[in-house]
Amino acid sequence: MLAAVLSRRRSLSEHISMLYLQVLLNGLVLGGLYACIAAGFSLVWGVLNVINILHGTFIVIGSYAAYFAYVYFDIHPLVSIPIAAVILFFIGYALQSGVINKVVAAPVLTTLTLTFGLDLFLNNLLIVAFKADYRKVTLENPLGVLSLSGITVPIDRLAAMALALLLTGLLFWVLDASRVGRAIVAVRMDREAAALMGVKVKKIYALTFAIGAVMAGAAGSLMSLIYPISPLNSGIFLGKAFIICVLGGLGSVPGVMVGGLALGVVESFGALAFGPEHAVTLSFIILILFLLFRPTGIMGKRGFQ
Amino acid sequence: MKRGFWILAAIIVLLLPWVGNNYFIRLATIMMLYCVLALSWNFIGGLTGYPSFATAAFFGLGAYAGAISQGQGVPMYLAWVIGAALAAIFATGLGLAILRLRGHYFAIASLVVADVLREIVNSTTNLTGGGMGLNLPVLKLGVDAQAKLFYYCMFGIALLTIFTAAYVMRRPLGFGLGCIKQNEDAANIIGINATIFKTIAFSLSAVFVGGAGAFYASWVNYIEPGDVFDILFAIKPIVMVLLGGAGTVSGPIIGAIVFLILEELVWRNFLTFHAGVLGLIVVFLIFYLPDGILDLNYRRWFGWRKN
Amino acid sequence: MNDWIRKDFFRFASFVFILAGILAFSGPVQGAEKVLKIGAPLPLTGPLSPEGQKQVQGYDLWAETANKAGGVKVGSERYKVEIVYNDYQSNTPRAVQLAEKLITEDKVNFLFSPFGSGATKAASGVSEKYGMPTIAATASSEEVYNQGYKFLFGTFTPNPTLTEPLSDIVKAKVPQVKKVAILARNDLFPLAIAQCADVSAKKRGFNVVFFEKYAIGTMDHASALTQIRAAQPEWIFATGYINDLILIRKQMGDLKITAPVVTMIAGPAYKEFTDAAGPLAENVSSASWWHPAVRYKGIDVFGSTENYNKIFQEKYKFIPDYAQASASSVGAIFQIAIEKAGSLDRKKVRDTLAELNVTTFWGDVKFGPTGQIISLKPPVFQIQKGTQVVIYPTEIAQAQFQIGVK
């Protein structure tokens, strides 16, 4: 009540800077989630040189896993991430060793068309199984909203963003510190040399793809808190992943974080400046500009260095 | 022998509208539309080896160019030419920008262009009707006459595309494109101006698609951004060429026809799962027919079977 | 040499395969018993499939009810109703293609329009070309009916009939409303109705401080909503489909946006909205063309709104909303027209439809010169304590309009 009276007495410039601050905050929170969406996609693209069109559908599967875990077992989506992760690990590993491994060295057209065909199939399967209706995870005890002198942040989004960044950081740490991680990086840098050093390349490929799927599943679990769930969303997730990878630089985890945050902020301010209907176009135009003038992205590095 | 085959095929196509009902004619018109799309993609994808996903962008651009022109009173056939010309000009400009990219990056850039164009069309509501779509004037002709008219017009566009494709393949342009596909740097060294050749191929991949887009708008009398910029318009031609074999004239044509028949069969029989079946067909194609039906290598196929 | 023979063989084999395919599709379709065939091209898969399913529920209920009562009376004979469903995958060009297929190949007697204003408009060209009476169950925008066609009819009244009564109520009951914010989905119906809201608001002297469109598939509305919050409007008007509106309402809560009046079209009509939005749905207002609370006694096969609700609940175990009711009404209206005309002749039935002036469970049915219905009084309703209650028309009002959405 007091806050309402006080806010009305604020000056115009304060109002405007509050607006900008809120928009910035919106963008950052969104950006954290975006980073998680793109992390797995970037990994697969960077290491296997495969553009995984299935990534969007993987995210949706993760969302469904979280949804059903909540509806049938009362498990909070933030906690059910491991469930989604395990499911997606198996799906990813199976797909890769069974199907995609056969075309890993093939030209772009082949791999792209193949993953596209697989995605058509998997997505249709989801629609038949779960229907295209939008499901929503409605928490019994919502986490509420943090409010600080007129700027608001929904807590569940904040939590999701934190977890997203945490997971992405975890991925980075795994790649950097563990044996498997070093093997993956080695394969990325030089496949033949890695094979000569005793690395089972095909297994590493399968593992990498599976990790990518796991990240997607985790992102999906987090998403279930925020967005309605439907197989129809897969294309939107995929589009974001594309843009973030190019924006941030391919194959680098810090790049994904930077790219994600950048995209979130750009979309937020873009909607403010040009109207919400142009926010999406704006992000695509930025994608094209980056492709033309700085394909290595903001970070400017390729690979896991 | 070969020429006789083609003449026979042409006569059959000419007589087709008198064999079936209007729905059948509609299917046949779509078949020829697919031929145009497949042959056009072949210029940049099959001959030159650049995985372009821009077909959807060109189609939509041509559709809206034609529709807006007709809305301003331009006669229908001229509107189609405008659609074709605009698509070609756009492709030239776009090509100069993105043909420098290789592999994945080029694919993504060409893919994204359709989305960008779609959103631009969506926002310029005053010009394009935005999300509410655009209506085209209905011809003052009987239904049967209209069906046949559009059929023969599409046939004309298809013939143009076929002749251009055949012509290009027999000329230095076709040879040069093949060199670029094999090894672009080497091609540059032996004196082929890869940039010019690639750009020409890219424009060729757009001009007939743009005309077909404008034709499509006149044919269905109502277009929406989501429909004419649909990504499937980019994917299907690629699948068709994969089916029939790249690099020839008959390959894309056969691929287009077989694809349409498959599509229609799947659609009629799998009410809720046709997209999935299509996906399976694509996967199957990649594994078992990497060079298309026409180049099926029996021994290799049986070799796999034995393993 | 071997290669050449192999290539020739495959060319020939392909040719034969293609010829076979062509012949397989060009054959005429058998048929013709005492069956009344109605074509229903619907989006059974793809983004619009939830809407398509609702239409199926409505059509099926009508067909079942009509057949149970002995079928449709055509002169002295009785015809069994058969609905021919086809899926156009939420893809408008396919809807047009299907309309033609249903007319020429499946040889249906009459046609139900595809879903939504866009596809209806597109397919209406085909209906007009063939002189096929077509009724649209889900098309309200006047742009759909403005082509001078004679064979298209629709059971939704024009969009202003939704926004005008709503604006009257707001003006009368909520005097503190001065500023209005409008957020619209960039799609045929949501944008059209948002524009009508804009007109209705300005007509009553309200100040429209914000009017923006969001792209289809937008996943985050925080930016737009932040701007709305900064403008502090008293009336927030949002349009879109159910998943958009759930998201918008939730993000409004996240940003702590409150207003005396929040109106959303077209989500709140569905139970899914109240379920998903929970306490946030309280006092959200909306309008639609029908509500199970209306009470009409009609000459159609259902007899009355109450009976319709009863039969629907028996079959599907939940209360119908306007989407299914509209679909059923289209079937029922066709039946009335056919029985009145006493024949299946397309021109006769079309003329009967044009002159129709009857009452049905859906409401009064009279079509205007463009084919769009002009006799309905679309109800305004509000979500109070978790259920939808009708506020207008006053004859069937169940509660008073409540102010204040948190």
Labels describing this entry:
heterotrimer; A: 305 residues; mainly alpha; two-stranded antiparallel ribbon; 3% strand; C: 406 residues; alpha/beta; Rossmann fold; six-stranded mixed beta sheet; 12 helices; 15 strands; 43% helix
Sheet/helix structural class of chain C? alpha/beta
Number of helices of chain C: 12
**How much of the sequence of chain C is in beta strands?**
15-25%
- In whole angstroms, how far apart are the ends of chain C? 82 Å
> Averaging pLDDT over every residue of chain A, what do you get?
81
Gap between N and C termini of chain A: 53 Å
Here the CATH topology of the largest domain in chain C equals: Rossmann fold
Q: Sheet with the most strands of chain C? A: 7 strands, mixed
**Quaternary arrangement of the chains shown?**
heterotrimer
Calculate Rg of chain A over CA atoms. Answer: 20 Å
The domain tally of chain C reads 2
Which two chains have the most extensive interface, and how many residues on each?
B-C, 49 and 45 residues
CATH class label of the largest domain in chain C: Alpha Beta
Provide the helix percentage of chain C. Answer: 40-55%
User: Strand fraction band of chain A?
Assistant: under 5%
Uncertain runs of chain A are none
Number of helices of chain A: 12
Largest β sheet strand count, sense and barrel closure of chain A:
2 strands, antiparallel
The unreliable regions of chain C are: 1-5, 26-32
Describe the structure.
The complex is a heterotrimer of chains A (about 300), B (about 300) and C (about 400). By secondary structure, chain A is mainly alpha-helical. Chain A has a domain at about 30-135 and about 150-230. Chain A contains 12 helices and 2 strands; from the N terminus they run αααααββααααααα. Chain A is globular. In chain B, about 60% of the residues are buried. Chain B has a two-stranded antiparallel ribbon with strand order 1-2. The longest helix of chain B has 28 residues, at about 145-170. Chain B starts with a helix and ends with a helix. Residues about 295-305 of chain B have low confidence and may be disordered. Chain B folds into 2 domains: about 40-225, no CATH class; about 230-300. Helix content of chain C is about 45%, strand content about 20%. Chain C has about 400 residues and is an alpha/beta fold. Chain C folds into 2 domains: about 35-155 and about 295-365, 3-Layer(aba) Sandwich (Rossmann fold), CATH 3.40.50.2300; about 160-290 and about 380-395, 3-Layer(aba) Sandwich (Rossmann fold). Chains in contact: A-B, A-C, B-C. The interface between B and C is large, with 49 and 45 residues.
